[in-house]
């Protein structure tokens, strides 16, 4: 287990208090282990976590639950984004983990606003939902990451850390993990029309949502808006609405004692069978399994 202090958050997810001090640029730990034992937790710092030889480990970031491969690199941001890596099906006898934690204040507003930091700024904004980097990006920074913890010259170590962040930020190989409705976070870099519709959906997800009504909000025809929304978000409007409803449903499963049928209808689904089927297709677990898994991972102190 990590040698960190922690306190209890209102939903009984551990809030980790890291060893990072105001005088540190970042905190890095490299460890070799045979199992994952630390419980579901959250913290205010950003965390870049690398795992090698961890095939079969189960990663939970918000409402994203996935089984990882031999190599894993994830960036976590957002103070209320719970996450954990647990043993799952992994049978490796030598799992290598490198964890780098750094404060959001490391890059003050003036520095992060500079042109040279534009790509890092965009990446950190997206990290409040968790970002999973794909193999091309991992391999690009592997040689530097591999030796980072052992670097004795602290200034050189910091420069290498900046290099890793930069290369990851321009790789184009990062996938968002948690849904925005689960992570309690809204991105602010969308077009005003898309953001207006997204805000409306987040406030009215439990109600029937019609394309004609949403397109009227931004003064576009349904056909034009449907095409515009997909071009700007990479998803159809119906796919986005389902994801938002599932995010709120997942949050209710974790934070409330309401039964699954209540949650289904309160989140805008009008058929329990369809809700169960859609939830499993998108989250890989049924609502009941998802709730049980989070209940198992929460620890009361």
Topology summary:
Elements: E1 5-8, E2 14-17, E3 27-33, E4 41-42, E5 46-52, E6 58-61, E7 64-67, E8 71-76, E9 83-86, E10 95-102, H1 109-112, H2 118-126, E11 131-133, H3 135-148, H4 154-169, E12 174-176, H5 180-183, H6 192-204, H7 211-217, H8 222-233, H9 237-255, H10 260-266, H11 272-283, H12 287-297
Parallel strand pairs: 2-4
Antiparallel strand pairs: 1-2, 3-10, 5-8, 5-10, 6-7, 6-9, 8-11, 11-12
Your description of this structure?
The protein is α+β, with helices and mostly antiparallel strands. The protein folds into two domains: 5-178, Jelly Rolls; 187-297, Arc Repressor Mutant, subunit A, CATH 1.10.10.60. Helix content is 43%, strand content 19%. It is built from twelve helices and twelve strands. The protein has helices at 109-112, 118-126, 135-148, 154-169, 180-183, 192-204, 211-217, 222-233, 237-255, 260-266, 272-283, 287-297; strands spanning 5-8, 14-17, 27-33, 41-42, 46-52, 58-61, 64-67, 71-76, 83-86, 95-102, 131-133, 174-176. The strands form three sheets. Strands 3-10-5-8-11-12 form a six-stranded antiparallel sheet, with helices on one face. Strands 1-2-4 form a three-stranded mixed sheet, with no helix packed on it. A three-stranded antiparallel sheet has the order 7-6-9, with no helix packed on it. β1 and β2 form a beta hairpin. The radius of gyration is 20 Å and the shape is globular. The two termini are 15 Å apart. 32% of the residues are buried.
């Amino acid at each position: 287990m990590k040698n960190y202090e922690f306190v209890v958050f209102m939903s009984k997810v551990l809030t980790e208090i890291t060893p990072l001090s105001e005088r540190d640029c970042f905190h890095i730990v490299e460890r070799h282990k045979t199992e994952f034992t630390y419980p579901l937790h959250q913290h205010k710092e950003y965390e870049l976590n690398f795992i090698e030889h961890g095939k079969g480990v189960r990663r939970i970031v918000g409402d994203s639950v996935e089984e990882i491969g031999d190599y894993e690199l994830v960036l976590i941001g957002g103070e209320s984004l719970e996450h954990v890596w647990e043993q799952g099906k992994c049978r490796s006898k030598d799992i290598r983990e490198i964890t780098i934690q750094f404060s959001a204040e490391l890059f003050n507003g003036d520095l992060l606003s500079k042109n040279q930091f534009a790509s890092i700024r965009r990446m950190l904004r997206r990290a409040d939902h968790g970002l999973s980097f794909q193999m091309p990006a991992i391999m690009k920074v592997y040689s530097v990451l591999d030796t980072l913890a052992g670097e004795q010259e602290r200034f050189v170590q910091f420069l290498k850390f900046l290099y890793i962040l930069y290369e990851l930020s321009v790789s184009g190989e990062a996938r968002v993990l948690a849904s925005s409705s689960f992570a309690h976070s809204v991105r602010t870099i969308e077009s005003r029309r898309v953001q207006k519709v997204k805000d409306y959906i987040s406030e009215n997800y439990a109600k029937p949502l019609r394309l004609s009504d949403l397109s009227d909000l931004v003064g576009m025809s349904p056909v034009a808006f449907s095409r515009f929304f997909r071009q700007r978000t990479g998803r159809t409007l119906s796919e986005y609405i389902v994801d938002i409803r599932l995010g709120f449903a997942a949050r209710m499963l974790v934070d409330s004692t309401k039964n699954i049928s209540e949650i289904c209808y309160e989140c805008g689904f009008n058929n329990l069978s369809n809700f169960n089927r859609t939830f499993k297709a998108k989250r890989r677990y049924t609502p009941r399994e998802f709730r049980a898994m989070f209940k198992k991972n929460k620890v009361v102190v």
